[in-house]
From TrEMBL:
UniProt cross-references to SUPFAM superfamilies, sorted A to Z: Actin-like ATPase domain
UniProt similarity note: Belongs to the FGGY kinase family.
Protein name: Sugar (Pentulose or hexulose) kinase
The keyword Transferase appears for this protein: yes
Domain Carbohydrate kinase FGGY N-terminal: 16-240
Top-level taxon: Bacteria
Family matches, as InterPro entries: ATPase_NBD, FGGY_C, FGGY_Carb_Kinase, FGGY_N
Assigned keywords, A-Z: Kinase, Transferase
Any Pfam family matching the protein: FGGY_C
Coiled coil: none
Record has Kinase as a keyword: yes
Domain Carbohydrate kinase FGGY C-terminal: 276-474
């Protein structure tokens, strides 16, 4: 086996997937059997700077190089060869957000991420104009808000893209974007597989008289569907990715995609009537629709699969950040006791405690709102834990409530799809770090959504593996073979999964928790109103 993998590496019969997640940059190299043969990671965090959530784009390059170097070293150590040839490459990242460049390719303003809830006015105006839901985090909402704010940088824009599109441009020079990620910049047309032309023209009419030297079509990346060739790694891109000089230029790249699209691929959920849940800093559920929804809902976004089919997306801005912060506190306690904690064990033990809890969480209440929450209407957030003297304050209940809170806002959006729109969901595939601990995340998610939840053996690999699969699909697909068929017949045909059905006791307990959660939203609002953001140390009085 090692010999055949080594041969595949030497001959370039591999695909590389690189994903820029909210807390981790990951590179995954797969062979032609879709098995991960090497990987590398780089941890990073967003910063709240001058009123915006952002990442320093210099760290994009630093993290990209660090993750690739770690992968490169793993190949050398495991197989005794230097990585020089790769069959195909794909880049993925957090969807949406706002990256704008001038004519020289320089950043005009710091990267404004999907996490910002600063575009309410623009999103509302565009939703009304298009009669199509424009979420606050979409690129077009950020652009229009900057226009409404009369921000001077707007006149200098020559290219607007997402993080995956930016990295792809650095590596290839091609201003390209996969249709799934593009559908989080601007609405797309399912038939034409391009931006919605009528809405493009509507937007340009909104800008008449402002004197900008561009039209919207001119500054957007070109849209590509899954399987298309979206450029080659140029020499500068090869040196950017691998400063050691070993990696050869000329490698084909697939269209860059967002984490929603790669999540669909990683869970085999691109066919109509399939769905998936992706858990991380945010949590979102996606369902490939048989027919369009009947109305415009504030809680439901319409995006696209990597092939361009319409998808109903329910996204909550906050999921695991507060849970991770509490586990970090337990880590500090270990260290204060003179112990060296194993973080995998710490996560496993603490999360598993949640399964021993009272079904409703013992009367405890948590809001993991590190940022604003679109589904419940919060422009800002304050992580909050509340209990009454009568609450059963145990470790098990404490952990269960924070697990419940991670899915609570998502549940509110899901009730519209399953209730008002009668979308039938047979089962959901799930992926993300929370599902690495056996049973726990699945059981809580199944209770929250009241449907069976399946986790595949690739769940821990997530979007980096998903974009590697899309890169592989580009070079290995049969003529006219759809992505859905490629996944079902080749990638997932022998892959084992584990399904957990909703436990009726958990379902009833979660329903009770949701009553407490919705009634307690004014408490969260009071925290936003009265608990100010931390000022700089020198400003504290």
């Amino acid at each position: 086996m090692t010999h055949s993998v080594k041969q595949a590496i030497v001959q370039g019969e591999t695909s590389l997937g690189i994903e820029f997640g909210s807390t981790r940059i990951k590179a995954v190299l797969i062979d032609h059997h879709f098995e991960t043969i090497a990987s590398g990671t780089y941890e990073w965090q967003n910063q709240f700077t001058k009123g915006y959530w952002t990442y320093d784009l210099r760290e994009v390059v630093q993290g990209l190089q660090a993750a690739y170097q770690q992968l490169q070293q793993a190949v050398q150590q495991t197989y005794g060869v230097t990585l020089q040839k790769i069959g195909s490459i794909g880049c993925s990242a957090m969807m949406q957000g706002y990256i704008v460049l001038d004519q020289y390719g320089e950043m005009l303003v710091p990267f404004r991420t999907w996490r910002n809830a600063t575009t309410a006015e623009a999103a509302a105006e565009l939703t009304s104009a298009f009669q199509f839901k424009i979420p606050e985090r979409w690129s077009i909402a950020h652009l229009y808000q900057a226009i409404l704010n009369n921000e001077p940088h707007v006149a200098g824009i020559r290219y607007m893209t997402t993080l995956s599109g930016y990295v792809h441009w650095l590596l290839t020079g091609n201003k390209a974007l996969g249709i799934g990620d593009a559908s989080g910049m601007f609405p797309v047309d399912e038939t034409a597989k391009q931006y919605n032309e009528d809405m493009i023209q509507q937007f340009d009419r909104l800008l008449e008289g402002r004197g900008y030297p561009w039209t919207l079509q001119e500054i957007l990346p070109k849209v590509y569907t899954g399987g298309k060739h979206a450029g080659n790694l140029h020499e500068a891109g090869a040196r950017l990715l691998d400063p050691s000089g070993s990696l050869q230029a000329g490698i084909p790249l697939c269209p860059p995609e967002g984490d929603a699209g790669t999540g669909m691929v990683a869970t085999n959920s691109v066919r109509k009537r399939t769905g998936n849940v992706s858990v991380g800093t945010s949590v979102f559920a996606m369902f490939v629709l048989e027919k369009n929804v009947s109305a415009v809902y504030p809680e439901i976004d319409i995006v696209a699969t990597p092939e361009g089919s319409p998808v109903a997306m329910v996204l909550a801005n906050n999921c695991s950040s507060d849970l991770n912060a509490w586990i970090g506190l337990f880590r500090e306690f270990h260290e204060a006791m003179g112990l060296k904690p194993d973080m995998n064990q710490l996560f496993s033990v603490l999360l598993s405690q949640g399964l021993e809890a009272d079904a409703d969480g013992g009367g405890l209440l948590s809001y993991g709102y590190y940022s604003g929450e679109n589904i419940t209407g919060f422009a800002q957030g304050r992580p909050l834990f509340v209990r009454s003297p009568q609450s059963r304050f145990t470790l098990a209940n404490f952990m269960r409530v924070h697990l419940y809170s991670a899915f609570a806002a998502l549940r509110l959006g899901m009730e519209i799809l399953t209730g008002q729109e009668r979308v039938n969901i047979d089962r959901i595939s799930a992926h993300g770090g929370l599902f690495r601990t056996p049973q726990v995340g699945q059981r809580i998610c199944a209770a929250a959504l009241n449907v069976p939840v399946s986790v595949l053996s690739t769940a821990g690999e997530g979007g980096a593996w998903g974009i590697a699969i899309l890169a592989s699909y580009m070079i290995h697909k049969e003529p006219n073979e759809s992505l859905a068929d490629y996944l079902s017949s080749k990638v997932f045909c022998n892959m084992e999964g584990q399904e957990v059905a909703p436990d009726p006791t958990d379902v009833d307990g979660f329903a009770l928790y949701m009553e407490r959660y919705t009634k307690g939203l004014p408490i969260e609002q009071a925290a936003v109103d009265h608990l100010l953001e931390n000022r700089k140390r020198g400003e504290l009085g």
